Amino acid sequence: MNIKNIAIVGGTHGNEYTGIYLIKRMQRTQFQAKWNGLEIALMIGNPRAYEQCSRFVDTDLNRAFKNEDLLNIELPGYEANRAKVINQAIGPKGSSRTELIIDMHTTTANMGVTIILVNDHPYNFQLAAYIKHKLPNCFIYYTSAKSYTGEADHPFLNSIAPYGFLLEVGPIANGIVRHDILEQTSMAIGAALEFVSKTNTGECPMPTNSLEVYEHVRTVAFPIDAADNINGFIHRELQDSDYQPLQKGDPIFETIEGDTICFADEGVFYPVFINEAAYYYKKIAFSLTQKRVMKIKNTL
Ligand SMILES: [Zn+2]
Question: Looking at the UniProt record for this protein, which Gene Ontology cellular component terms does it annotate, in alphabetical order (predicted)?
Fold first, then answer.
């Protein structure tokens, strides 16, 4: 494997400042020079939303990268157009000159450092295993197009290129920067680029032959009242319990009236994005994953 062309993106969501600040730091400190042999494009994903300190202007940019949407020139809104500009700059999706993309995000959920993979290419799992070796507390979350949307084509910016990952770090409020979160994000990127550099020069840094992966199953909606408004909140026992096992009978919500709602599905799930601020407008309370241990083959 020889990967040369990399894109690092921050601010795909305009109110997630950590990635934007890191892009600015990289631009101002000759970051590229530290990574000899790699061509690294640095980009702020949604500059107009950043100006407004909002997640997006018209629609979520990180759901705008399905092929049919990239090809549809009549699709209205700033992000539909911005996705095409990004696709032209670092893509085009399917035959992109950029081989690997790191898209930096933050979350209000207690997810620590989470590496999100959008396809099952072995290189991506090897890369994730290396980052996990360097940052032992990080989590690997796999969300295929099929599991995420039920369709074959992924809507994330990451889907432009075959390799790379979406980085989700939290908990942090939207519209602020925290030194610790910024540093964790920076360390994950450093580990990723170290892996790419090493594999490019023929070193095969495979620290493990198995990897714990949390695979996306589905989202869970908040309880809704007769007027279609959210009628409750995350139960204290679920709050901050991202990646902790959840099973039938565990409390997940308390309604406005004060009733407890418990989880009703059979089996053991691992919730993530618990109480994510960005999903309230979609009435999504959290997502469910299942844990599995993957064999990692050294194909480098
Ligand atoms: Zn985001």
Answer: cytosol
